[in-house]
Design a protein that fits this description.
Low-confidence stretches: 1-32, 117-171
Shape: elongated
Number of domains: 4
Mean pLDDT: 78
CATH architecture of the largest domain: 3-Layer(aba) Sandwich
Length: 509
Amino acid sequence: MNDQNSFPLSQFFEETNPPAQKIDKQVSTFSQQGDLELFSSEIKNAFKQKLGEQRFTFLQIEQLKLKNMTDVAISFSVPTTFIKRLIEMQSMEIIKETTLHLFGKNFEIDIQVEGSESKEVILPAATPVNKQNRQVKDFSFQLTEMTSTHEETLAQASSTIISNISPSLPGGQSIDKKRIFSNFIVGPSNNLAHAAAVAVAKNPGNIYQSLYIHGNSGLGKTHLLHAIANYVLEQKPTERIFITTATEFMSEMIAAMQEKSIHIFRKKYYELVDILMIDDIHELKNREGTQNEFFHVFNELQRRKKQLVFTSDKDPKEIHGIEDRIRTRLSSALVIEIQLPDLETRIAILKKKAVDKDIYLPDDVVNLIASSIKSNIRELEGSLIKLGAYSSIYKVDIDLDIAKEQLKIDDDEGQKSTTVETVTKAVGQYFKIPIPDIKSKVRNKDITVARHVAMYLSYYIARATLQEIGLFFGKRDHTSIIHAIKKVKQQQKSDPSYSHMIYEIETKL
């Protein structure tokens, strides 16, 4: 009796009249439909053992149909191009590994869509099988060599993440491992968004089931998306995360509809995603079909208590071209705005990125860049990279003159042209308070706020010393200047509108 727990190909067929030369590990071309169906079934069983039930189902391996098997190649067919692309992107390495385990040799794997022309493979002469003198054995197919070890069991458990889903699913984005909470610079302009993102990451689907972060481009919205994903994967590795954009969501949906595989598209979003993150959700505008599909995805994931996170450049109420039912659902999320970073935050960002990129810049250069570029973190980083490249190529240290020349910052734009007086004048215009009143000892609330703001901006933008500021504001002691600066910092942290006010005054300097 042959051991039925193993599967040596040489014994796959029981021959009533064995040929003089036995079939070794060489695979002959099989043409009978019964052979193909049997082989197809057993190969898929091996895949299922390798992948686990959940991932096997998700990756649509069940749709594979064995079409032909030769000495060097195995050909499969699938119903649609969508499934073909999914399997090729997710499963080719697994298919090759599994067939290697089964047959002890590497095969070329060919996947075709049913009805399309199959790739013709030129093969060396194969030993024919005597069709008249063979009968298929009744056997049980088990892979003893694939019995799971402890490590493999852990790997199968991790496979429920579906390779972290985002790196390789059609339409998905890879999770950027460098974007984490610890290297996100928190300031008055983004502290609420950061706190909400951390809360979501610690308890997805429970505290804020839907989170909507909006703000101008380049302020850190996408960084927070990836930071949430990285934190969740570290703490709860079985959570299934999918990051995409509204445009990619639309493209994937259209492809699924064209391939008549919209059920697969829906199954992925309805059943196989625990945390859905969609960047630039405003791109759904004027896309009625995509909005309708998104509506059902949103409802189903909320019903299943899954986590939803969206980013946009606008508040949901300000997005034109979306249906009211979509606007209502987006507005039901925790909606938080990331505002333009204040000067102090911009300085902190520049210093952190300079350390990360091993670029040395003196404080006066950092302050110059931070005061000249006010609206976009990416521009700050671009300026830093440009100066770092200049320093590396010409082997020189960066000073103010080089920075101004390379970044094309005129003296009129630089901080040296900004004085305590020009700062106080801008503050007075904003608050509609005369400069003499701001400099006076009057303790009226509005005047006191204006005075504190003027001192704060004089210190950070005009780069005046505490002594210079004190002299301008009526020979005040340096401790009162420090108190004013701290007061403004605290207000910005607790009141985003206060931070926005500081930014508006700063832009006029």
